[in-house]
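Hi R.,

Here's the chain you asked about this morning:
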Amino acid sequence: MLENRDLSIKTRRRRLRIAAIFCILFMAGNMLVKSELPSMLWKMGMMAVKNHTIPISDEWNLIVVNRWNEIPENYSVTLIELENGQKVDSRIYPDLQEMFDAMRAEGIYPTVREGYRTAEEQQEILEERIQRYINEGYSRSRAERTAKKWVAVPGTSEHQLGIAVDINADKTRSTNDEVYTWLAKNAYNYGFILRYPLGKEDITGAEYEPWHFRYVGIEHAQIIYENHICLEEYLLNRLCN
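And the predicted structure, written out as tokens:
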């Protein structure tokens, strides 16, 4: 018991040190922007922190999961099944349903193509993508590197949280472009953000995905949307203020 307590204290201290480093670098980046120095310096400041662990949020809807931050060991989720068999965290279902109702009222028909995934399902998807590239003539190592640009390694996928959804169109009544355009402009009103925006790849660790939306809650989503930032930037800013 004493060993576990000591480990917990060390873990908290480590997170505090990391948080302090984040604050220094992030604030330095803000100062560079405000002083109107070249934007490249700001990007360098952000890239300096991109490989570090972001402290785990106490708020379930703000937990960061990306290639550098794995799902917390004690994370659990209560799922609800949608009509098409996909599952999501029951806490996001009311806002997700309201958002879909609003889209349909405007003649746009979305569907959740991917919701919650187990680690095993995530691994299967990764292996399938790797094999696809091998079939195209890639070496195994190149196929793995390329696949991991698009498919997260198990433990680093937001889909395992249950609060991220890939949203496509019901092709019989809408197009993907119609769905993506509506979501980009309106999803924040229902607590969802475009998780992997164009131009933020070095910070999120993921390629631009106009179909991947993540629930953070309406208040947080509005700030992220209005400031044209990603989740990592939002949390670093909150951490330092």
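The CA atoms of residues 149 and 161 lie 20 Å apart.

Let me know if you need anything else.
M.
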